[in-house]
Amino acid sequence: MEDFNFTELRRRISKYFENDAQTHEKENIFNEIQSHPNGPEALQRERLIREKIKAHVSRPSVSPGLVDQIKNITNR
């Protein structure tokens, strides 16, 4: 296991959460994060931030008419 700095740790945590990695790679990233001295704390902090954002930011709903229009355009 190579030693990496905090910037690299943040990059790996982002990659872990953003599903940029395949399943086996995601497991390796998780293990690398856990082995870093600040890893578990940084991972938990990022998880909490992402959960709060999901809870407090709502996505606008799309009208069924718009969905139908898009379907009609793509089926032409």
Quick summary:
This protein is an all-alpha fold and 76 residues long. It has 4 helices and no strands. It has one domain.
Q: What keyword list fits this structure?
A:
0% strand; 76 residues; mainly alpha; elongated
Structure description:
- By secondary structure, the protein is mostly helical.
- The chain has one domain.
- It is 71% helix and 0% strand.
- The protein contains four helices and no strands.
- The radius of gyration is 19 Å and the shape is elongated.
- The chain starts with 5 loop residues before the first helix and ends with a helix.
Helix content: over 70%
Q: In total, how many beta strands?
A: 0
Q: Give the topology string: H per helix, E per strand.
A: HHHH
Distance between the termini: 54 Å
Kindly name the structural category. mainly alpha
Based on CA atoms alone, the radius of gyration comes out at 19 Å
In one word, what is the shape? elongated
Question: What portion of the residues fall into strands of 2 or more residues?
Answer: under 5%
Indicate the low-confidence ranges by residue numbers.
Answer: none
Number of helices: 4
Mean pLDDT: 87
* Largest sheet descriptor: none
Count of spatially separate domains: 1
